[in-house]
Amino acid sequence: MAEIAHDFSPLIRVYNDGRIERLMGEGLVPAESDPETGVHIKDVEIDPEINLSARLYLPKNVDPVQKIPLFVYFHGGAFVIESASSPTYHKHLNMVAAEANVVIVSVNYRLAPEYPLPIAYEDSWAALRWVTAHGNGDGHERWLKDHADFNRVYFGGDSAGGNIAHHIAIRVGLEKLESLKLDGIFLACPFFWGKDPIDGEAENLGVKNFIEKLWLFVNPNSSGLDDPLINPEKDQKLSSLGCKKVLVYVAGKDPLRYRGFYYKEALEKSGWPGTVEFVEIKDEEHVFHLFAPTAEKAMGVLKILVSFLNQS
């Protein structure tokens, strides 16, 4: 019987014989119109050679003339679990599409350890380039060509997806994509950390040890927890963030919450000219809004996000 080589329960285990056991995030929801919201859903291939795809959401009764904001979403899961078609995201993104009246592209990037970082970032950038092709008329996806306003684009993501959204926004700032105007990014309980403990982190060194081992597992060539990919405060390019506003939400019982506030402070000190809105939801766990999307506090998060996506 194979022994466990890496145990990151409750996320993933890897055995000495190479077998990978994902312990959650494996379910799939079919790409069918949602009966509750009327939101239309479909899956699209972006690059079949590397199995890069996305799930698209289009609100019902969308105006054939008036274009609506585009929300590019990156799912979480510590870079090792979940997918764009996971039940974890189905209800939440349906509600966002319906309530905010936005087109959503949820990116299905490849996961570690089979595809270690920086592949998730590279896939996400490739997906964004595919999206932006529709802004200059080159793409073939009708939902994007007919309905997406490429002058009102937002990125979003939870946990590891929040980390990805941040870094893709940095790259947008550096490379200045002509056919896309990024207005803002929404980071839900973003997966950031650092070598030196801040605020209350020193009280729970077990979490730090877990995150450090997990980070080096998904990114074996990393320098560690002060790698700019996990610690934005160490990134000399931080002020290049390619949008004018950021919304960060953290949960009061989440060990990552200190890093969310630290990210806000680092952005403000970096010379970046935008504004950061920071929201803490008391007495809740990491990304609770995904697991109980209709709960009162989760609906509060949704309301804040909808407002953010509809600012001119």
UniProtKB/TrEMBL annotation:
Alpha/beta hydrolase fold-3 domain ranges (all copies): 71-289
Matching Pfam families: Abhydrolase_3 (PF07859)
Alphabetical list of Gene3D superfamilies matching this protein: alpha/beta hydrolase
InterPro entries for this protein: AB_hydrolase_3, AB_hydrolase_fold, Carboxylest/Gibb_receptor
Family: Belongs to the 'GDXG' lipolytic enzyme family.
This protein's name: Alpha/beta hydrolase fold-3 domain-containing protein
Natural source organism: Datura stramonium
